[in-house]
Structure formats: C-alpha cells, structure tokens
Specification:
The protein has helices at residues 77-88, 150-173; strands spanning 14-18, 32-34, 38-45, 55-63, 66-71, 94-101, 107-123, 135-141, 144-148. It is an alpha+beta fold and 177 residues long. Strand 6 and strand 7 form a beta hairpin. The longest helix has 24 residues, at 150-173. It is globular and about 65 Å long.
C-alpha cells in the first residue's frame, strides 16, 4: 500500500454534512464542491521618499461563494432550507463540514464552513434528446472556513505544547519579592 504522503490526493471521494435537521440520506451526496477559496485584500500604502514601489498591507480576508452540485432528489432537508430562504426570505445560517476521504472512507482533509446561507439555486436544463440526470446547483455565501488535516492538527498540538512548556518554565523561574 502506498504511503499517504507520497502522492497527491484525488478529489472524487468526499462528503458534505450540513448542520441542519431534518436531513434525508441523499443530503450528504454531492457530485461537485467548489469555491473553497480565501483571498487576502491588501491596501496600498505609499511610503514618503520611496518611489520605486507601493507597499501592499494586508487588510482582511474574503471568501468566495461555495458551490455544491448534485443530482435532483425528491425530498431534501437542504432543498427545504434553500426554499425557505428564497420564498420566505427567512435565512438560517448553518455550518457545513466538507471532508475529503481516503479509500477506507476516513477523512484526510476537512473544511468547516461557518454560517452558510443560500445565495442561488439553479436547476439544470431538461433535454428530451438526452437521458441525463437533472443537476441541482446551490451557491452559498459564508463567513469563513477553517481547514483541518492530520499534519496541521499535529503541528498545532506541538506548538500548543511547546508554548505551554516554555510558559511553565518561564513561570517557574520567576522570583517573588
């Protein structure tokens, strides 16, 4: 069996879990996920006396819309959530966990999307000349996502332990007067 670190991961085995209830079994099945993108906005700053360049200072992050595609199913809690937002203008933000899975169906990478709300719902074309599945596309706005993978978690844990150890050591050296 090849080592997980030797090859890039494939993107065809994943799951999408909404923190919504009720959900149907098909609410976890998607054909495509896109839009897990973060950009850092920068503000130009002209330094006095320096005319060769302009500094670009980081200001904030912004996130693209999350786009989910799947075959059209009868009875869907997620579709009901979208429909309620579109028809009644009642928005209930929800979190979403997107996981890239390995061959044993275990998560390799996870993206935890915070406070998603429906932005767009699109039903694919109907064509009498082709026997194709009807595709449902949902575009969602969200505040941000957190990224988790085993290596990052291990590094975060090690950094936390190192900080705790150095804090404990510096605390034990202090002398009270």
């Amino acid at each position: 069996m090849p080592d997980i670190l030797d090859y890039p991961q494939t993107g065809f085995h994943f799951t999408v879990a909404f923190e919504l209830f009720p959900q149907m079994p098909n609410d976890f099945r998607f054909q495509e996920v896109s839009g897990l993108t973060v950009n850092i906005e920068a503000e130009p700053y002209k330094e006095g006396g320096e005319n060769r360049f302009i500094h670009q200072l980081p200001v904030r992050t912004n996130y693209n819309e999350l786009v989910l595609k799947r075959g059209k199913f009868m009875g869907s809690g997620i579709l009901q959530w979208c429909k309620n937002a579109i028809e009644n203008f009642e928005f209930k933000p929800t979190n979403i966990l997107i996981s890239l899975l390995n061959e044993q169906h275990l998560p390799l990478y996870n993206w935890y999307v915070i406070n998603a709300i429906p932005k767009r719902l699109e039903i694919g074309a109907f064509n009498a000349e082709r026997s194709e599945v009807v595709i449902e596309t949902m575009a969602l706005n969200y505040q941000y996502f957190k990224y988790y993978d085993p290596a990052t978690a291990a590094m975060d844990l090690a950094a936390g332990l190192q900080g705790a150890i150095s804090g404990a050591l510096s605390g034990s050296v202090s002398v009270g007067i």
